[in-house]
């Protein structure tokens, strides 16, 4: 079967060209596209350009410690500063470690649920699909607040229970906090990813399964050789969104900052960018944001390329 | 789309084999599947259950009673405190959230659908380049935008205003992507052409014909943008300092950070979370039929 039609191609390949008759209505498209394009330019393009511009400066004080500060052009100095910054490097490593574990774990779980639901009895399907999707409707702040309560030694029935069985791990301790955050993210987004994969599974033509059954393929074999390859585009899509989400990691650790000293103000690159901006060092913060956006681009496009090449091979 | 995502194999004419049908063979695997699904349902629903149970407790019971079961029922008291605290600021936050997310998603959906339709139904020079730039917007982390947006709004002396949170929220590049795919697939050129021959203007064709055909995509875009704005945390945190302008999530967070000083806020954060979560879940469940078809169009077509 051909599995070359990856999400990358969907993203770049446009719809069918319209008929020559529509082509004559030359300027009409503007009336449709412009209302979107204006705010898009103002609130997407301009901020990016502005951040790049800002990142090329540095703050300089004249007349000693209490003198006025002003911005002077510094070229790429801020980027060198960001790369040389220990907090930044640790934050990046932390987020990468987080992503390498959390994203595959979450997507595997989502795929597994989707496959089970797809082959389960229809009556069960409806209830479970909804149950698993509920966390997605819960704002990240509130999800983190709820889990913070469930992790906290004083309040949590889960910790109580674990203490009765043996000893409860310190969910907010230095060793576990990153994975406690990973659990909140997994809890929130597994259902969403599951639903995208499930929708793709449901859209597969029934004849494929019949053909597989005639060929003597069992349920596992059908899942492995037919269903998974056919929902590849959906998997790639969810993976790209997860990669973007991981690099953006902000809300959950910020909430945990209030209850655990193990989450510092520079815990993730995003938190650092915020903290640095709050301390009025805008150029450094801008350079950090630009590098983060760049890293997101490189990683998600790199991933798309990689999966595309594999599919073509 | 020009090419179908999946090559349909020719339908088989062979009848399914008798005897070892899938249901009979898999009685054990059905049991395993059910156990697996139930265990996961417990995991996914446990925090929500915890939230419901503990919303009904007094501050004292919150600490001392079993966290998975009810104690003295104080839900109504908690609700009363929630809505009267700080001069009823919670209700104000709820209305703010509704405005930011409801109005923002409505405007955003309209803009995205029009743009997607325009990109699907009109050919013009630079169309693919423009589409690529918009798609690039999907990949830009919203958080990378928030700080420069703050600086820009600061230059215009517009930080700490309703507009500083509202305006950036109406842009949905993903909505344009989804509606372009959907418009290409579900609005036939012949219908558009027929309406033109009947003398309908381009805008009228969009609003009376195309927008109806694109309804599932519009519901999907609206819901997902609604959730994105409702859940947004960084932008309000960066832009707003006036408590009266906070959305729900950020307001609850601000209470959470004051718990050390005022432990009574703990109950309010819990019951406030419950109150702010329920409407969203209800909206999602009641519109399920619509957004799921839109979602599947975006993921595999």
TrEMBL record, chain A:
InterPro entries: ABC_transporter_permease, MetI-like, MetI-like_sf
Pfam family, one: BPD_transp_1
Record key words, sorted: Cell membrane, Membrane, Transmembrane, Transmembrane helix, Transport
Membrane topology: Multi-pass membrane protein
ABC transmembrane type-1 domain segment(s): 92-303
Alphabetical list of Gene3D superfamilies matching this protein: MetI-like (1.10.3720.10)
Gene Ontology CC annotations of this record: plasma membrane
Location(s), subcellular: Cell membrane
Low complexity composition bias: residue spans: 1-13
Keyword Transmembrane helix attached: yes
Main location group: membrane
Transmembrane segments annotated in the record for this chain: 29-53, 95-118, 130-151, 171-192, 230-250, 284-304
GO biological process: transmembrane transport
Region (Disordered): 1-22
Family of the protein in this entry: Belongs to the binding-protein-dependent transport system permease family.
Protein name, entry field: Carbohydrate ABC transporter membrane protein 1 (CUT1 family)
Source organism per UniProt: Oryzihumus leptocrescens
Lineage: Bacteria, Bacillati, Actinomycetota, Actinomycetes, Micrococcales
UniProtKB/TrEMBL annotation, chain B:
GO biological processes: transmembrane transport
Name of protein: Carbohydrate ABC transporter membrane protein 2 (CUT1 family)
Membrane topology: Multi-pass membrane protein
Organism: Oryzihumus leptocrescens
Residue stretches of biased makeup (Low complexity): 1-16
Entry's transmembrane regions: 28-52, 98-117, 129-154, 160-178, 213-233, 264-287
Family according to the record: Belongs to the binding-protein-dependent transport system permease family.
Main subcellular location: membrane
InterPro entries: MetI-like, MetI-like_sf
Gene3D superfamilies associated with the record: MetI-like
Keyword Oxidoreductase among UniProt keywords: no
GO cellular component, one term: plasma membrane
Residues annotated as domain ABC transmembrane type-1: 94-286
Region (Disordered): 1-21
Compartment(s): Cell membrane
Pfam families from the UniProt entry: BPD_transp_1
